[in-house]
Amino acid sequence: MSGNHEAVVRDPLILGKKTYHQMTEDICRPIEGKANKYWWISFIVAFVAMIWGMTCLAYTIGTGIGSWGANKTVGWAWDITNFVWWIGIGHAGTLISAILLLFRQRWRMSINRSAEAMTIFAVICAGLFPLFHTGRPWLDYWMLPLANQFGSLWVNFNSPLLWDVFAISTYFSVSLVFWYLGLLPDLATVRDRCVDPTKRFIYGIISFGWKGTARDWHRFEEVSLVLAGLSTPLVLSVHTIVSFDFATSIVPGWHTTIFPPYFVAGAIFSGFAMVLTLMIIARKVLGLQEYITLQHIELMNKIIILTGSIVGVAYTTEFFIAWYSGNGYEGYAFQNRAFGPYWWAYWSMMTCNVITPQLFWFKKIRTSIMATFIISIFVNIGMWFERFVIIVTSLHRDYLPSSWVMYSPTFIEVGIFVGTIGLFFVLFLTFSRLFPVIALAELKSILKKTGNQYKKKGIL
Amino acid sequence: MPTFYKMDRKYELTRNNKMIPLVMIAIGVIAIIMGFMTDKTRTWAVLLQNDFYFTAIALAGTFFIAFNYAAQSGWTVGIKRVPEAMGGFLKYGMLGLILIFIFGHHDLYHWTHHSHEELSDPNSPVFDPILAGKLGFLNIPFYISRLVLYAVLWVGFTYVLRRHSLQEDLDGNIEHYKRSVVLSAIFLVIFAVSSSMAAWDILMSLDAHWFSTLFGWYIFAGLFVSGLAMLAMFVLYLDRKGYMNHLTDSHFHDIGKFMFAFSVFWTYLWFSQFMLIWYANLPEEVGYYQTRWKLFRSIWIGNFFINFIAPFLVFMTRDAKRTKRILFFGGIIILVGHWIDVFVMVMPATVGAEWTIGFIEIGTAIGFLGAFILSTLTELTKASLVPKNHPMLQESLHHHI
Q: Which of A300, A307, B253, B347 has CB 3.0 to 4.6 Å from A269, enough for a Cys bridge?
């Protein structure tokens, strides 16, 4: 890297008068101290939501998928919408840790740990939906290519749904290993600072005996490089395969070639929105404003503009080509999306995903924490609607008008979705109390390059 | 890194720099004249293919400048005069595309053959409701105005960005940098829309019945990767001539990484478009690939291998990307590969089964390449190769990865 020759036009990434020791203190504080009131309130709310979701899930297992609103025409609806939404949210973590690493974006170091944690939790939430949509979750191992002695049927390798099984399980494993590997040096730091012998023992075990020797670091860096190399194609492949679930079909509105890259861009878009939502709260609650600075927020907002605009171009392209193709069914599918009975879903999507992120063109808005928080929530909502629009509006009017139906979710389905949000926050809040939320060892490596008091302020 | 390099060293054209491209252009002119004397359609198709290919590369130069400003990248400062100079060809390329359309549209675009009335009348021998439905978009006046609009926007932004960059050398005012960032962001928005639309217009409408939502982005991937390869060629050439001793091995490594990554990205889009159409097997879409499979099989399969497998293997290792010879070799593969890619997009709908790669094809390509080289080298003589007042220059001079 350019080392100490960093241009003066770049703002510092670590504010305040930090020393290495001070950084350790700041980042270990949430783990070592007691949780405050806000943490407990959020935890309890999330926990209750999670329990509610589990109850609804138990009801679904007991009575069957009939307890959902899906029907003969709209066979995929709420559950797949949530599945795609959660998977998409997970993408920011891998993008930050793998692709921004390749592009040598140092600002990723303050946010990669929590974004990667978010990836893992989001994939857990996502995975629940297809697992339970099978109706008999105790037979879910049939999704694996097992020999017939297990009572399963041989899987259909032509089906993108099976590719999904492989893609997502690989993605989950690699993300988990990558995240955990990065944690090792920081867990060792926590271990070395522990006063309580029990805690010390536990952190000792989970830090795998990290000593911080040259050999440790050497191996650490080798493995990190390999994992970053594996993660990069994975980020692209996972949502590509999710998009294949729709695009390999011949359903008008689903079969379109732009889906793979457009889904990936959308996933990164929604992932960054979720990272912003979480980090804006976390930096405040955990007192990390000097590490997750306004500049970090602004840069993430720029990624939101970029990916939001890519998604906007994709929507427009799809609409235009639906007309250009001269295919009446394709044209109708899009007309029905925008002006049919689900127009409100379509226009919610358009407003939240295409219009609101464009406000970030104004520097005032993209450097306002409140505005960013609100817009990030909008994007989260918009991306949920995007999946709902793609899935439900393409299905609900079949070729035969006699099969036309409307879909609305049941109380149970809504409960499961709320439950996954609860689960996500329970996991994230627990994580923020047990693990360092910022990649401490990594961030220390740039203190003397971009730390506030080390940066030479020049002519500007 | 040498301890001494001149900050305001300009490229000087050698005798060969003028002679060789002029000879190449002469070969091109002969090929085109011969083409028009033997086979008009084939020649128009070849002209369109080459003009599009080199215009796309020039546009990639401006795109490279713009996204590097927008992303605040530092290491590219040392090479930025090369993509700037590449953008200089854009005005000739766009003029060429407009002229090719005006004079060759009948041979190239079959949607120009009949009027809306003829196509939409069920009793007419050319009854074609699908094509008739598209004529609101695909009609000659609207098409030409779109081409002119792209030309104005692209050439205009290229010019303005270049002017700020040159002015910065003279007065060292930081405002030029700040303005360039804003202009680049605006250009990127315009580019995002116009590059896709231009792809539909210039190439997708050759197969007027066919459509693919991914097509614009697929063209973008090809444009970008061939632009990167051309950039690498010029940087390597200047380096060999001793003009680029302010660069380190890391710059070459990074250019190599870019070529590697975007070759894979191109493949990703190629695969996405092909796989989805093949899998769904809808008659209105799959015909596009059937023509290619039946009539262009060897070159169509070759296209995939030369643009994916070859760069993938060549640029895989770190050492390869740091070895100038290998970088040059890989860049040539990509340039040839994407020339073939455009060939496979243009020819099936125009020349069809009688396609061949003979003197007309190769000669025209040589002619365009000569023009591109002459234009770019001449642009390079106009400014110092080191943008000496760029605020991120030090990052680039000390680039080390």
A: A307
CATH number, residue A233: 1.20.1630.10
Phi, psi dihedrals of residue B234, rounded to the nearest 5°: -70, -40
C-alpha distance from residue A27 to each of A104, A110, A260, A443 (Å) = 23, 11, 38, 11
Other C-beta atoms lying within 10 Å of the C-beta of residue A459? 8
Asked, for residue A88, whether it belongs to a domain, the answer is yes
Q: Do B192 and A317 make contact, defined as CB atoms within 8 angstroms?
A: no
Q: Give dist(CA B360, CA B31) in Å, integer.
A: 5
Taking the C-alpha atoms of residue B168 and residue A120, their distance in angstroms, rounded to an integer, is 47
What DSSP designation does A390 have?
Answer: I
Nearest C-alpha in A relative to B273: A257
ipTM above 0.95, yes or no: no
Q: Cβ(A169)–Cβ(A145) under 8 Å?
A: no
The single-letter DSSP state of residue A123 is: H
SS3 A260: helix
Nearest residue, CB atoms, B277 vs list A257, A314, A321: A257
Half-sphere exposure of B272 (CA within 13 A, CB side): 35
CA distances from B196 to A236, A321, B204 (A): 21, 12, 10
Is A1 within a domain? Answer: no
- The structure tokens 């040096």 sit at A185
Choosing among B116, B130, B186, B213, which should be mutated to test the A contact, i.e. which has the most A CBs within 10 A?
Answer: B213
Cβ-contact B74, B395 below 8 angstroms: yes
> How far apart are alpha carbons B20 and B373 in whole angstroms?
9
Please state the domain count of chain A.
1
Dist. CA B295–CA B317, nearest whole Å: 37
CA-CA distance, B187 to B209, in Å (whole number)? 31
A413 belongs to a structural domain = yes
Contacts 24+ apart (CB under 8 A), A217-224: A220/A181, A220/A184, A220/A185, A223/A181, A224/A178, A224/A181, A224/A182
Contacting residues for B33 by C-beta, under 8 A, at least 6 apart: none
Q: Looking at the domain assignment, is residue A340 inside a domain?
A: yes
The structural domains of chain B, with segments of one domain joined by +, span: 15-397
Picking from B1, B209, B246, B276 by the largest number of A CB atoms within 10 A of its own CB, the best residue to mutate is B276
Is B129 part of the contact surface with chain A (CB cutoff 8 Å)? yes
> Which among B57, B139, B143, B70 is positioned nearest to B336, based on CA atoms?
B57
Whether residues A5 and B394 touch (CB distance < 8 A) is answered with yes
Q: What is the pLDDT along chain B (401 residues), one digit of tens a residue?
A: 454 566 778 888 888 989 999 999 999 999 999 999 999 999 999 999 999 999 999 999 999 999 999 998 889 999 999 999 999 999 999 999 999 999 999 999 999 998 888 888 888 888 888 898 898 899 999 999 999 999 999 999 999 999 999 999 888 888 999 999 999 999 999 999 999 999 999 999 999 999 999 999 999 999 999 999 999 999 999 999 888 888 989 999 999 999 999 999 999 999 999 999 999 999 989 999 999 999 999 999 999 999 999 999 999 988 999 999 999 999 999 999 999 999 999 999 999 888 999 999 999 999 999 999 999 999 999 988 888 888 888 888 888 87
Q: d(Cα B387, Cα A137) in Å, to the nearest integer?
A: 63
- Which range of residues forms the domain containing residue A192? 13-147+154-448
Q: What are the start-end ranges of the H helices in A76-209?
A: 78-94, 100-102, 112-133, 160-193, 197-206
